[in-house]
Amino acid sequence: MSGDQDQSSQLQANIKDAIAEGSSLRLMGSGSKDFYGRDLGQHRILDLSGNRGIVSYEPTELVITARGGTPLDEIEAALEANGQMLPFEPPHFDGKGTIGGAIAAGLSGPRRPWGGSPRDLLLGIKLLDGQGRIMNFGGQVMKNVAGYDISRLMAGAMGTLGILLEVSIKVLPKPAEEHTLIIDRDPLSATRLIGKMIAESQPVTASYSLADKQAIRLACNHQRLAAIRQKYGLQESTESAGFWQQLRDHKHDFFQQPKTLWRLSLKPTTPLELTESCLQEWSGGLRWFYSERPATEIRTLVERQGGHAVQFRNGDRNGDIFHPLHPRILGIQQGLKAVFDPHGLFNPGRHYSDY
Amino acid sequence: MGIDRQSLAAEFLNMLPPDCVIFREEELIPFECDGLSAYRKVPLIVLLPYTTEQVERVLKHCHEKQIPVVARGAGTGLSGGALPHEQGVLLSLARLNKIIEINQDNRLACVQPGVRNLAVSEAAKPYGLYYAPDPSSQIACSIGGNVAENAGGVHCLKYGLTLHNVLQVTLITIDGERLTIGSNGLDAPGLDLLTLITGSEGMLGLVVEVVVKLLPIPERQQVALAAFDDVEIAGKAVAEIIAKGILPAGLEMMDNLSLRAAEDFVHAGYPTDAAAILLCEVDGSEDEVSEEIMRVRQILLDSGAREVRTAEDETERMRFWAGRKNAFPAVGRLAPDYYCMDGTIPRNQLGKVLTMIGEMSEKYGLPCANVFHAGDGNLHPLILYDANNEGELEKAEEFGGEILELCVAVGGTITGEHGVGIEKINQMCAQFPDPELETFHAVKAVFDPQNLLNPGKAIPTLARCAEFGAMHVHAGKLRFPELERF
């Protein structure tokens, strides 16, 4: 691709300058997830989008290696041409997103429970740390237990530990066909039915539930689809694949409200006494709702059920956005931050106020 | 300065029931090694607690007294990760062996670390569920050890490693604090510490409880056995299966020496004159499996297989797998001792790597059988030797070391699933430059600043690497100069 560039040395020089100046940096790829996380305040933006390009892609090895700034669209097009996909179905908010940003934010789309998450699929990284060191962890192979798994630690770290110069990701064959079925029931019995279908090994690859409308995506041919429809008494949807993409990218109507959006991660069957209407994915493991209730109230409710809550969009961005941590675990995280970014250069305060 | 065994025993007897403390020399001997019996050390003392509270107490005491702690599960590890420390405690978690919960609706199991891998699947079976990671030692190995080593198995390509199947662990830190890492959902807040803990070889904390994912038992499994006259053609057939969009549940290769050994041992029905065999398993619904196994069969034939057989029934399917799962003990019958390696390589390097291993085998004068998790590139060369012959163990170790360095040189890694332990500590120097090694040490120090948990394992000191480098760069030349470096 034109525009492919390895900017490792330039970025390394930027880090050394920042250390010398004592300044801090706001890491940015395409900026599609700028809204996500705590408010950073004023920091110099370090643009990572120029460090881009697919470095290697061997379809039969099921691995793609790309520079962090490579647009998701470019990666997905290369995979598509070989009948493969990024199994974690990363969101493209605003139709944008880079692979480095997708890994750093750690977010997955509707396929998550069946396809895995960024940390599940990440095999290796080339990291630029806060001392300006370029290091390689993991590799391009599926199985690797040499040393601690530093690469996967970067998934979901919100760029607080270093810059992902390159990432190697496991890819999978894309299902030949996927179809959507509508489940027309009350939410509770729909959730039970989805659970039953999964338990009976039906080829579910996504689920959706909002009020009295539920849908399920299945990877199978027409023949098998007909059998499933009959067995569970379901209708085929007129919705196209575009529906799941809108859900993934938060283009779905539900996500257009200018209120405080919460994201809950829980055991799928967890009962929650919420008065707010919830959009559910991941067969109940992921729930979205709007609420202006105090954060502590929501967090207590979720924590009691062994889950956690993220204040995903809107609301006060200066408080805790991510679920508060046990003091000892927070201490470990501060310790890890000091290992990778001792000068506190990267995204200070974006993940937690303490680092 | 040595610690006195008797007085240490007295201290632990004050906090644990008498049968939890083993300190008589003759009773300590059975604990002197794990599955890698070439390395042996007698621990100062062995502790066998029954409860999590007892583990906390032990760790607090060891932390206070600065006593090294080596954790041990079932002791089946193949890299010496549970090799005792002569001045330390060997803490066995074998008695924490309860299955706390099988949650059918959420498809989870909560188990203690001493529960055997296979026991989880057995307990889940009445609910139509199973635990996917299946290391060949699954009859004996425990979940705690699986987490410590990030154990694999023959179904990793489709179902992932231990890491992908663990949702939460309860960890006891070196100073005895109990922490919950991960969650019962599909993600957890903060940095993903579970990725560090899994595969950390008991160096960061002790796992006393594990929540694992369970999967629905597939309606049907079917396996195809393909025979090849050439190992390289078998390797290309693997790439062809993947290229055609098939994701087999298992994809295993055995070379002639290992398949003959397995045939002699369990009579699996393998064609003993083949240069290599491939076992390709597919799973899913009846119809899917019928369709897919026919596709697999055709791809294998088109790729140059001499013969392809599909299992006639479940008994034959189990027999095909029995040969593979018993490959290590089967090869073990060919010589008094064998040394099992565990490198991972990009699959497309298989032909080159096997040829070079063949050349090394001639150079060292030691036979080598190869068993290969072909789906995920994890190669297990089994070097045959006789420890009673003067110098042969050293020769086998050097041969093994050379294989691992070759794996790194072709873009792979020194260990896919067995861990570094003590065995591959020198080869870590070949895989990682100093900044990476320094980072590993710094990460350990965050969890265990006094370096009390399994000290000396998994991550070599820079001094050790400097010494090892001096030994291995013969006359200023790197090994495998003809290969491109990754």
Summarize the structure.
The complex is a heterodimer of chains A (355) and B (486). Chain A has 355 residues and is of the alpha+beta class. Chain A has helices spanning 8-21, 72-80, 99-105, 112-115, 118-121, 150-153, 187-199, 222-232, 241-248, 295-304, 327-340; strands at 25-28, 44-47, 54-58, 63-67, 84-85, 122-128, 134-138, 163-170, 172-173, 179-183, 204-210, 213-218, 235-236, 261-265, 279-281, 286-290, 308-313.
Identify the notable features of this structure and list them briefly.
heterodimer; A: 355 residues; alpha+beta; Uridine Diphospho-n-acetylenolpyruvylglucosamine Reductase, domain 3; 2 domains; eight-stranded antiparallel β-sheet; five-stranded antiparallel β-sheet; 17 strands; 28% helix; 23% strand; globular; B: 486 residues; Uridine Diphospho-n-acetylenolpyruvylglucosamine Reductase, domain 2; Alpha-Beta Plaits; 4 domains; seven-stranded antiparallel β-sheet; 18 helices
